[in-house]
Design a protein that fits this description.
This protein is α/β, with parallel strands linked by helices. It has two domains: 8-53, no CATH class; 57-298, Alpha/Beta hydrolase fold, catalytic domain (Rossmann fold, 3-Layer(aba) Sandwich), CATH 3.40.50. It is 42% helix and 20% strand. It is built from twelve helices and eight strands. The chain has an eight-stranded mixed sheet with strand order 1-2-4-3-5-6-7-8, with helices on both faces. Strand 1 (70-79) and strand 2 (82-91) form a beta hairpin. Helix 1 runs antiparallel to helix 2 and helix 2 (29-40) packs across helix 3. The protein is globular.
């Protein structure tokens, strides 16, 4: 996977952790900017650092939308609480129906980066379904990513899980171009939701979580779905839940794989974020993801 070259040394780790707090706590924007200015040494330095912390979706073109190897469309279908909109993309010449992969976005909604990730999955030979979880109640993901984050925070968790399960059901039985198992991969907020979907749908073929919040022990112990977990070693907020999660999975005999990527931050796979993206870790994690799906969804030897 191609990526951009980024000078992450220009962003102190303290600033990365502050931005993570801002995007997940969240802090108010004025408080965030004031604290960033103290870290950077002034408002001008903070202003120069801010673009490296924020996502730049103009760079979300690892696989262009017009790539002739793919065909994409926006579909809608009913889910609990409304109508779900999803970006669906697949190989242009597929022949027989293919397995499907549901791609669940971060807490900034269905943005150009996640659409690009869906195209990467499609190039690997899947029908990729990328739902917009802000479409049923808010009409879709807004361009303002802070507004998207706020709207994600207002979603009802129980209803969101039921909607996610409905997306998997749509991928499994609502399309003529899908046959075989359905997998799910999620990032950040979507990584936590991918874990929940794995616990809620025992017929799921496989689930991959990138730095997602872990399941409670009682749910983890009931898992029947193959699980692959990617974590960033510097992501103290999410990693705090790993020991209990692993203990529950191990005690229940649940099959899982866990990879810890040293020296990288939360969201290291997001190549539109200069401060946190790490190409080596992202490429390795994605290769492992495709190998995992290839084994569980296509029946290839591991």
């Amino acid at each position: 996977m191609k990526g951009r070259t980024m000078d992450r040394t220009r962003v102190p780790q303290e600033a990365v952790e502050l931005y993570d707090e801002y995007t997940h706590a969240p802090l108010g924007r004025r408080v965030f900017l004031d604290r960033l200015a103290r870290i950077a040494g002034g408002t001008a330095a903070a202003a120069a650092m801010l673009p490296l912390l924020q996502n730049d979706y103009a760079l979300a073109q690892v696989v262009p939308a017009e790539d002739p190897r793919l065909v994409g469309e926006t579909v809608t279908f009913d889910v609990p609480g409304g109508t779900m909109s999803a970006y669906v993309v697949k190989p242009a010449v597929a022949g027989e129906p293919l397995p499907a992969v549901v791609v669940i976005h971060e807490n900034r909604g269905l943005n150009p980066h996640i659409r690009d990730v869906a195209r990467r999955a499609a190039l690997a030979g899947y029908v990729a379904v990328a739902p917009d979880f802000l479409s049923p109640g808010s009409g879709g993901t807004p361009e303002d990513e802070d507004r998207a984050r706020d709207l994600i925070g207002q979603l009802d968790p129980a209803q969101t899980l039921q909607q996610a399960l409905a997306v998997v059901a749509y991928a499994r039985s609502g399309r003529d171009d899908v046959a075989g198992p359905v997998g799910v991969v999620g990032f950040c907020w979507g990584g936590g939701l991918a874990n929940q979907v794995a616990a809620g749908d025992p017929e799921l073929g496989a689930a991959v979580s990138f730095y997602g919040r872990q399941l409670p022990a009682e749910q983890a112990g009931a898992l029947k779905v193959p699980l692959l977990l990617h974590y960033a070693a510097l992501d103290e907020r999410i990693n705090a839940g790993i020991p209990d999660f692993v203990s529950a999975l191990t005690a229940a005999g649940v099959g899982y794989g866990l990879h810890m990527y040293e020296g990288v931050n939360h969201a290291f796979h997001n190549d539109t974020n200069a401060a946190r993206y790490d190409q080596a870790a992202a490429d390795l994690a994605w290769a492992r993801t495709l190998d995992f799906f290839g084994h569980h969804l296509k029946g290839r030897d591991a």
